[in-house]
Please model this.
Amino acid sequence: MKINEIISFLESLAHPSLQEHYDNAGLITGDAGWDCSGIICSLDATEEVIKEAISKKTNLVVAHHPIIFSGLKQINGKNYVEKAIITAIKNDIAIYAIHTNLDNVKAGVKGRMAAMLGLKNTVVLAPKENTLKKLFTFAPVDKADLVRDAVFSAGGGHIGNYSECSFNAEGTGTFKAGAGTDPYVGKQGEQHREKEIKIEVIFPAFLESKLVAALKAAHPYEEVAFDIVPLSNNYEDTGAGLLGELPEEMAEKDFLKKLKEIFSVPVIRHTALLGKPVRKVALCGGAGSFLISKALTAGADIYITADIKYHEFFDANSRLLIADIGHYESEQFTISLLQEILEQKFPTFAVLKTGVKSNPVHYF
Ligand SMILES: [Zn+2]
Model:
């Protein structure tokens, strides 16, 4: 199997266009055209992880964090980033990072955190803006079903748990075929009127080229008329953070104890207890201070995240219990998530979890 096939699969789950502007997700070293000898899943592609890949005879590291974030001016091995890159390149190891694009899908990092906590009725805390578009196209009546189904097959028409959503209205299209044409209906040089169905379908913007290709392949006309319009609706399935509910409310201390156990954290940094039970839980894997205000607005009882600074704890304004459980700890289940989805898709293939605990933070 080519590395390309593995990347295409991962991108179908977390499209690269869903990554944040500062991110560097994607293929960082290696060649997508290589044959893949096995995969190691990790949070970080440190030199230790690269060496592990070499020793286990696997040539693809799928990591959550991109080892390179910004440009490198020298590559002489003076720091951990350069060391990892040099070792990877020397040994033909491909590194693929699936970072904020995985953070921004509901079933990604945060979905796994929510599942570990048993949360129900989960919704994305800060849905991503400007990620939806609408396609309008016009098909002759007898081919409308074919065209519509092709657009659905390419991923159009999903709204929440509903699929194959569209709106259809009948009308009349006109056209005059010019020289050199071979019109599906009508004659060259004469205005033709055709009963057509106008089909409207919503879709995530990253599917645009796939959708247009499917539309053109299925549509009988030589020149396919269609409009694509950006929408300002939020795409509720993508974005940062998650809000969910515990099956039953819990006392704050009991919940913090449970949190410590599930995430194996030696210490939780938190704001003052509020003396009220916990039911609504907001969470975000990794550095999540940017969502404190969203957690407050959503009426969460607790916000579980990491990398909260001193002054940011004050932003709870005595209305929210903020729990900082550590960056690595909050994201640790992402390794199993990646391993499981890859193994399920490629069952005959070696997909391993790293044995390296790459957490640079230790507790004394
Ligand atoms: Zn992270």
About this structure: Residues 7 and 247 are 36 Å apart (CA to CA). The chain has a mean pLDDT of 96. The pocket of zinc ion is lined by residues 65, 286, 327, 331 (CB under 6 Å). The radius of gyration is 25 Å.
